[in-house]
Specification:
Layout (H helix, E strand, L loop, with lengths): L4 H13 E7 L5 E6 L2 H4 L4 H12 L7 E5 L3 H14 L5 E5 L12 E2 L7 E9 L3 H12 L3 E10 L3 H6 L4 E5 L8
Parallel strand pairs: 3-4, 3-6, 6-7, 7-8
Antiparallel strand pairs: 1-2, 4-5
Helix pairs in contact: 1-3, 3-4
Catalytic activity: orotidine 5'-phosphate + diphosphate = orotate + 5-phospho-alpha-D-ribose 1-diphosphate
Cofactor: Mg(2+)
EC number: 2.4.2.10
Length: 180
Amino acid sequence: MAVSDRENLRQLIKDLAVVHGKVVLSSGREADYYVDLRRITLHHAAAPLVGRVLLDLTADWGYDAVGGLTLGADPVATAVLHAAAARGHGVDAFVVRKQGKAHGLQRRIEGPDVAGRRVLAVEDTSTTGGSVLDAVEALRAEGAEVVGVAVVVDRGAGDAVRAAGLEYRAAYSLADLDLA
């Protein structure tokens, strides 16, 4: 019996990305472990799985561009772009800067224009939803229609994202990773 992309990715996350020990998260909260998803989203075997799993997770949302706040969202968006291309679908990726550039075109959102497009906001992992909601605000300011938010691992952001009026899906919960 073949092991699914979802199960393969779950095991890689557990083996490579879960680091035990006291850490302070970007939200300011303390935790007894850290899920370092860059060890996954930038890994030769795991990154393609990230793209396929998130593409499957959000297949019914109908979007043509994907991205989020740099840095956590960048490799996730690129993985989805490549997975979609492999399936014959044209999905662009974009990067939302934390601040607009002070030079050049002074864009806050890099990549193909998002104005008037249906976009998916992504993040590798989210505890409070703050980063992805910042990205959503920037996307809406540029005229994008945000169809929803998808994360690889949810650390608790779902309620905040849904409270902001957005659909929210996570490929994995903490329980899926034996962390809750």
